[in-house]
Amino acid sequence: MSHLVKPQSLPRRLLRTPQDLIAAGLAPPSQHAALQAVAQHYATAIPPAFLDLIEHPNDPIAIQVIPTPAELEVTPEERSDPIGDDALSPVPGIVHRYADRALLKPLLVCPLYCRFCFRREHVGPDGGLLDDAALERALEWLRTHPQIQEVILTGGDPLMLSARRLGQIMDALSAMPHVTTIRLHTRVPVAAPERVTEALLDTLESDKAVWMAVHINHARELSEPAKACLKQIVRRGIPLLGQSVLLRGVNDSEDALEALFRGMVAARMRPYYLHQLDPAPGTARFHVPVEEGQRLLAGLRGRVTGLAWPTYVLDIPGGYGKVPLGPGYVDGPRTVRDPEGKTHNLDRL
Questions:
Q1: Is 117 a catalytic residue?
Q2: Is 278 one of the catalytic residues?
Q3: 110 annotated ligand binder
Q4: How do the pLDDT tens digits run along the chain, 349 residues long?
Q5: Are 25 and 45 in contact (CB under 8 A)?
Q6: DSSP-assigned states of every residue in 199-223
Q7: Which residue of the set 20, 85, 98, 143 is catalytic?
Q8: Is 114 annotated as a binding residue?
Q9: Which of 6, 16, 79, 101 is catalytic?
Q10: Which residues does 74 contact at the CB level (< 8 Å), separation at least 6?
Q11: Has 97 been annotated as catalytic?
């Protein structure tokens, strides 16, 4: 496959419309009408940092962000709210699924819009920012629920907030005695690393334990600007976790996963979760069966350090929570398999 020839006259800006995609050589002119139909349902955004990584319109970076007419094909298994966020939202901006933690979604804007996103029917450039009153209601809910020890800032992407707004939220959370941990889930360090300024990092200073989970699906996303950005974050004493989704055509091979997880560890990021794809509308082309995912992870056991081996998880549709999918190595009451598949009988398990 030949490399993408990006027109020299194309400005370095966010690509949003079918016209933008065609001008950038990411879609043929014949697809304009079909892509316009997709745009009526789902947002598109490809920032310059991600565009720089695309070699051709079908490579592992491109297919994560370039819309296709297939997104309008919905299978019976797919749901508009696949993990039950809406049913578990006591007030706007809060999702409470587990007893000791809650999500805070201050906005529904992202630096890019993944074509497999489980919140794809909610996020977008007009997806909403909690206004002052709504944000205060969400914060008050957290204040009045002392069982909440961890608050996870997500959305959308919390690093798309201004430093002032993010600082207000961090200060409010830091002032809650029962909150011990603040976690931020983001794609910004790989999608728009220029947004991570010293001023933004200053807002993450807290007496609480602050963690950052970065969503990365392919080793090439760890570009030099991304690695420099992650280094800045680590220097602030913020531990990094890596989150990925198992995706057909992106990382559905042992080699691709190994490169991804090794790249994370080299960037001082602990691979945390490998997610089974959530059944959001129009995402069937990305689906990898669970059995195949288990085989891929088993193929890496013993091949990579345990630091580079995430937990393979399924978020049970309907809001029932995450469960690990294995692979497992216990074959019976006293039988285990080693990484090479050989069985061993043990007297005591």
A1: yes
A2: yes
A3: yes
A4: 445 555 544 557 899 999 999 999 999 999 999 999 999 999 999 999 999 999 999 999 999 999 999 999 999 999 988 888 889 999 999 999 999 999 999 999 999 999 999 999 888 887 688 999 999 999 999 999 999 999 999 989 999 999 999 999 999 999 999 999 999 999 999 999 999 999 999 999 999 999 999 999 999 999 999 999 999 999 999 999 999 999 999 999 999 999 999 999 999 999 999 999 999 999 999 999 999 999 999 999 989 999 999 999 999 998 899 999 989 888 888 899 888 889 999 876 5
A5: no
A6: HHHHTT--SSEEEEEEE--SGGGS-
A7: 98
A8: yes
A9: 101
A10: 281, 282
A11: yes
Return the amino acid letter for 75.
T
Burial of 2 (0-12, 13-18, 19+ CB in 10 A): exposed
Q: Is 229 annotated as a binding residue?
A: no
Query: What's the number of CA atoms in the CB half-sphere (13 Å) around residue 179?
Result: 31
229 is catalytic: no
- DSSP-assigned states of every residue in 273-289: EEEPPP--TT-GGG---
For residue 322, indicate whether it is catalytic.
yes
Report the predicted TM-score, pTM, of the whole model to 2 decimal places: 0.93
Domains and CATH numbers, the chain: 18-72 (no CATH), 86-323 (3.20.20.70)
Active-site residue 98, yes or no? Answer: yes
Set 81, 117, 157, 220: catalytic member: 117
| β-bridge mates for residue 332, sequence order | 335
